[in-house]
Automatic annotation (TrEMBL):
Organism from which the protein derives: Linnemannia exigua
Organism taxonomic ancestry: Eukaryota, Fungi, Fungi incertae sedis, Mucoromycota, Mortierellomycotina
Sections of the chain in a coiled coil: 215-249
Name of the protein: Uncharacterized protein
PANTHER family with a match to the protein in the record: C-TERMINAL OF ROC (COR) DOMAIN-CONTAINING PROTEIN (PTHR47679:SF2), PROTEIN TORNADO 1 (PTHR47679)
Superkingdom of the organism of origin: Eukaryota
Keywords tagged on the record: Coiled coil
Amino acid sequence: MANATQTFRLGPDGEQVQLEAFYDCNAEQQVIYWDDISREFPTVHRVKNGNTRVSFARNKQRQWCDPPCIRLYPGVVLEVVPGSHATLDSSSLVNASLAEASEHDSIEDNASRLNLEPLAIVDTVTAPSILSSTAVSPAVKDTALATAAPPSYHILQRTQLTLQKSSAQLVQYEQSTQAGQVIQADTFKRGMQTMQDIRGDILALRTEVAKNDELKELQQTILTLQAAADAQTKRMEEMHQQSVELQERSLRMQQSALDRLALIQNKVAAILTQNYELHEYPIPRLFIVLPKEGTTRTETLSRGVRNLFAKQFKLYFLCECGDHTKPVDGRAQNPNLKHEIHLARHEGYDIDRPTEFFEKYGSYILTLLQMLKYGVTIAGVIVPPLGQLKIIDDLKDTAEGIDHVLKDIGSRVNSSIAYIEGLSGVQSQLSLPDPNASSTDSTTLGGLGALEGADLRQLESFLNSSDEGRVLGNLYRIFTLEGHVKWVCLDHYRENYRAEAAQDLWDVVQEVGGQYNETTGHVDTYLDSPIAARRFYSVLGSSRSVQSLFIQFRWVPSMQDLRDLQDTIKLTNICSLQLGSTGSGPLLPDVLNFSRRSDPILQMMSGGKIRTCDLRYWRGFLDRINNIPTTLSIQQLTLELSHKSPKTILRLISILQASPLLTELTCWCSEVDLVLDPIMAALENNKRTLALKLDVYVNDVSGRVNDLSWTRVEIEAGTSRILSIDLRVNTLEGTMLLYHPSVRNIHFMYIQKLPILLDALRRCLQVNTGLESVNVSCSTTDHLCLRLPEFQGLFTKYPHQIPRFRLAIGESVFMTSNIQDVDTGHLKLAINNSDIAAGYLSNIPNSCTVKVRALNLDSETTSDNINALLRFLDARPVQPRFKILKISLNAHSSPIILASIHEALQKYRVLQDSYIRVELNDVASGPLFASAHKREWSLLQDYANCIDLFGKLPLPPQSTSMETLIWSCRRLKRLQLVELHPPTEQEFWWILAMIRRVYSCSSFPTNSKSIVEPTRLRELVLKNCHLSHVQWRQLVDAIDILTLGFVYIEDLEGFSGSLLTVLVDRCISTAKELSALAESSEIFQDPFAIENLRDREQKNFQIILLQTSVEDAHIMKEEARLKAHNIGWVKIK
C-alpha cells in the first residue's frame, strides 16, 4: 500500500510538489521529514497552513521529534516560505531574518508607554558565556563556508545573532518588571513563538550536521545553543507567570481605587441630596476643616489641658449654591457668578476641643474634603475638582484673612485628609462595604450618614464664635421650589432676592412692630388693622426672601382678610405659616361667612407651597371651615380643639384623609381620647402610605397648654397600626392609653400617691410586652431609699419586662438600664442625719453605684448618726462619691460631734474629696467654740471649702488663740458673711485677711503669728454686713480680681455707685496686666502665671448687686466701659 503524500508549493503562486509521508514511531503519526522538504526547497525557512505557521511534531513527552518533521495535513496545500538565498552575505541574511521575526515588534503598554523590541529571549546570566564559547573560529567558519550546506550555515548564524541581540532586551524587560510595569500578554506569546522558531532551527542544524561528517565539530556548539534556548524558554515562562501576577495585582489595586472613589461619590451624593425641613436645619450643614497656622500664645494657653498640644484647625462653611440659586426668570444680575459650591465669605472659626470634635464629626468632614478634592456633579449641584476651583475669582470681596486659605487650599485639604485618616476609628468607617451585608445596611454608607438636626445644633458648641446676632459663615437661609432648606452666601442670596424688595420689607415690618431675620428668612409681625395688613401684604408679595411667617391679628379677621393673605402667599416662597388672633367677637359685616371664615387657610394648605402650618393660637379653626379641598399638601399641622363636638372631629378626620403627605399632627385638647380614638377608627378604614406621628397636649382648666401631660403615637405606614406610644402624665385618670400594649415610654410627673401609681404600673406591665423606659418623678415626702424596694419588687413579678428605669423623689435619683438588675444601677442620693437615723441606707443595694449629691449634718446630728454612716461606708465594696458635705453647727452643738466628724474625715478619703461646707451660726456666743480643742477645729483648717458665718465672728476679744484659726483654712474657696453685727476693728481686719488670703503685718494685728499661706478665694458673698463707706473701699481694694470669680454684695445702705466704679477700674487695670503678660515670653517660664491666665480667660468675674443704692443707669455706664475695653469676662448683674 502506497504511503500518503503531502502537497507543498513555494510561495502563494508556486508550483505544487507532493512529498511522501512516513509513519514515525516517536510522533505516533504520519509525518513529512524536514530533510525531504529542504532537499526539494533549499531556501525553505518555514511552512504555513494558510495564516497559521506549521510547527514541528512532538512526542508524548512534548519534545521535538528527532529527526525533525511536521505532521501530515491530508488534502491541504502547505505553503513553503523561503528564507535568504545562499549567495546573500551574512549581514543581509541576519537583517532579513530579524525583520521578518519582528513583524509585530512595537508593543505599547498603556501604563508605561514602554516599546519592546522583538522578544527573542536569552538568559542574561548564561548568555554571555554561551555566546562567547559558541563563537565560530575563523578556521571553522571557513570550513563551514566551504563544506557546509549554505542553508545550514545561515541558520547557525541567524540563531547565534538572534540569541546575542535578545540578551539586551531581556535586561530591559527585567528592569521594567521590577519597576512594577505590566507587559501585555501578546508580547509573551510572540516571544514564545520566537523561541519555538529558534529551537526548530537548531533541530534543522542537528539534522544537517548528522548527515555531514565534516561538520561534526560544530555539533557541540549546536547542543550548547539548544541548552541556552531551553534555559531561556524556562526563564521566560517564569517571568511570564510573574508578569501575570503583577498584572492581576495591578488590576485589583485599580478596582479597589475605583470602588473607593465610587464609595466617596455615594457618600457625597447622600449628603448633597439629603433634604431637610425647616425645623431640622438650624445652621449650615456643609463645612470643611483645614489646619490653622500662626497660633498666638494666648490662643495656645486657652485651649485647655486636654487640647494644649493638639493640632489646631479652623472650620470653614460652604455655600450650597446650585441650580436652585439660579434666577427663576433667567435674568441674572451677575452673569459671571457661578453656581458651584464654594467657601463662604468668612475668615473661619477656631475649633474648641478639637479632639472631641473629630471624634464626633471626623468621618463626615472627611467625606466633604474628598468631595472638594475630587469634585462631583449630582442633582443640580456642582462641586468642581480642587484643581479647577476658582474661589478667588468668584469672591473678589472676600474678607481679609481668608486669602491665604485660598492660595494654598490644595495642600491644606490634603493635610486635613491625611490627619483625619490617621485618627483611630475614622478610616474604618470609610472602608468598603461588606458584599455579604444585607441591602438594608446600604443606607449607612460605611458608618456615615447625613447629619441630623441635633448634630448640627451641637456643632456650634465646638466653635469659638464672636458672630453675635449673625448666622454662622455669613450664610443666608433660602427655600428651594420644592420647599427644602439651603444656606447660601450673600451673592447667591441676592441673585434671587432683589435688594430693593428686601429694604421695603425691612421698613414695613418695622412699621407694624415686627421682626425680620434676613439670614433665616423669618418674619414675626403683629397687625392692628386691615389697613396695616394690606400695606404689609403689598410689600410681602414682592419679596421672595421670606420663607417662614408668623402673623398675630389683633382683631377678628374676616374671610376677605384671609383671602388677601392667601393671594399674597401665592406670590412668595413661604412654606411655613403660623397664624394667631387675639380679637374677640364676630364681625357684623362678615356674619354670613361665620361658618366658612377659615376656608382660605385650607386653600393655602392645598396650594402646594405651605408645608408647615401652626394654628395653635387660632381658636375655633375647625368650627369655621366648610369646604375641605380634596388634596392638601401639608406635611406638619398643629391644631387646637377647644371643645368636643362630633362635627369638629369629623372635619379633623377629613383633613387627615385629604393630606397624604402629612407626617406630623399636633393637637391641643382637653382629653387625649378625644383625638386619638376617632383618628384610629378612621385610619382602620383608610390606610396611609406614609407613617404618621401624632402629638397630643392636654389643656388645663383655663385652656392653656399643660406641658406636664403629653402623648405621642407613631402610626405605621400602610397598615395604620400603632407602632409605639410615649406618655407623659401628671394624673392617673382620664386616659386608657397607659394600658395599651404598644406603650413604649412612660413618664409619671409629680405623682403624690405612690400606691395608686404602683397599681397603675402593675396593670400596664400585665398587658405590655415591649416597655422600653419608665420614668417616675414624685413629689411625696417619702425618701427614695424607702420606696425603691417597692418598685423593685413589682418588676420582679414580670421578669420579661426589662425597661430602663428612673425614680426621682426630692433631690434623690435612681437610674438603671435594666430594672431587673438593680445592682447595675446608679443612685444619686441626698440624705441628712434624720434619714441616716431612720435606717434608709440599709435599703441601698450593695453593688449599686452611689453618688451622694448632698450629705447634710445639721446641728441635731448625734454620734450614732455618724457611726451609722461609717458602717454604711465600711460595707460598700466601692466607695460612693460625695459631692457636697454640709456641716451645720450652732452655739448648742456638742464638741463630741465635732470630734466624730473629724474622725470620719480622717478615715475616708471620699469625704475629704467632697465640697465641705461648714455653717457656723453664732458659735462665738456659745460653749462650742471655747471648749473645742484645736485638733477638732482642724477640720476647718484642713478640709473646709466653704464657710458660712452667721452672727458674731468667732473672735473672742479676750483671747487670740483662735483668732487666725478660720483664716488659715488651706482649702477655702468660698466665704459667706451674713447678718454680721457691726464689726470691731479687729473683726474687720480679720475679714480683710480672709479676703486677701495673705497674712501680713498690714492686714492683721501685730500680735498674730504667721501661718502658712492658704489658697485664694473664688467666691465672696456679703449680705447686710453693716460696713461703713471707708470699710467698703478697703474691702474693694482687697479683692483679688485675678483669682476671684464671684462677688455677691447685698447692702442697701453701705455700697454705692462710686464703689462700683472703683471695682470696675480694678478690672480694667487687671485686664491690661493680663494682656501684657500674654505677650511676654516670661509667662512660659512661670507655671503659676499660665494657670492664672488660663483661669481668668476661661471663667467670668461676676459682680452681683442686690438691694444696693447703685442705680441701673450707673450699672449700664460701667458695663459700657467694660465693653469699650473689650473685657468680656466681667459681668455685672
